Amino acid sequence: MKIVIHLIVCIALATACTNELVETAPDKNSDKFILRDQTIFESTLQNIQQNIIDSDQFVLHEVKIENKKIHIKVAYSGGCATHKFQIICPEVITMIYPPDFSVVLMHDNNGESCEAYLTETISFDLINDEINLSDEAISEMRISVINGSNPDEVVSNR
């Protein structure tokens, strides 16, 4: 029975992805996005491993999954303009137990670098029409967040 439940979780995670840009807030000008595309995910990983960085600098502190959302604590220089964050994730989730899901977090500082050093927790929905992960899949998954500005910096919820 336990194997069947784990298999269902893995299948649900594997089929939960799309190729479309998904906004995690109802506002069309949201500062947080999730992009699910295998090709973009792989090329982004390859670029940051080759030191081709398309993300503005930030520091990852931690990642948690609570209330059906990914909560990522970050720090960056700013304070004068809206900063945007984007999760780039693969279409495929590793089919192991617990399900393993790696994403790249990208930061766009909109060209501002005020001297304030901000720490905030940004959140992305795991349950919406496009992502549609089940409660069980969310409670079992291991998520690793890779810093798009520093590939050596990775945080995980487990």
Protein model, in words:
- By secondary structure, the chain is α+β, with helices and mostly antiparallel strands.
- The chain has one domain (2-156): Immunoglobulin-like.
- Helix content is 20%, strand content 41%.
- It contains 3 helices and 9 strands.
- The chain has helices spanning 2-14, 38-49, 135-140, and strands at residues 21-23, 32-36, 59-66, 69-78, 84-89, 100-108, 116-125, 142-147, 150-156.
- Strands 1-2-5-6-8-9 form a 6-stranded mixed β-sheet, with helices on one face. The chain has a 3-stranded antiparallel β-sheet with strand order 3-4-7, with no helix packed on it.
- The longest helix is centred in the first third of the chain and has 13 residues, at 2-14.
- The radius of gyration is 16 Å and the shape is globular.
- The protein starts with a helix and ends with a strand.
Identify the notable features of this structure and list them briefly.
three-stranded antiparallel β-sheet; six-stranded mixed β-sheet; single chain; 158 residues; 20% helix; globular; 3 helices; alpha+beta; Immunoglobulin-like
What's the helix count?
Answer: 3
Strand content: 35-45%
CATH-defined fold name: Immunoglobulin-like
Measured distance between first and last alpha carbons: 24 Å
**Main beta-sheet annotation:** 6 strands, mixed
Strand order of the largest sheet: 1-2-5-6-8-9
Beta strand count: 9
Look at the helices and sheets and give the structural class.
alpha+beta
Q: What's the average pLDDT? A: 76
Low-confidence stretches: 1-29
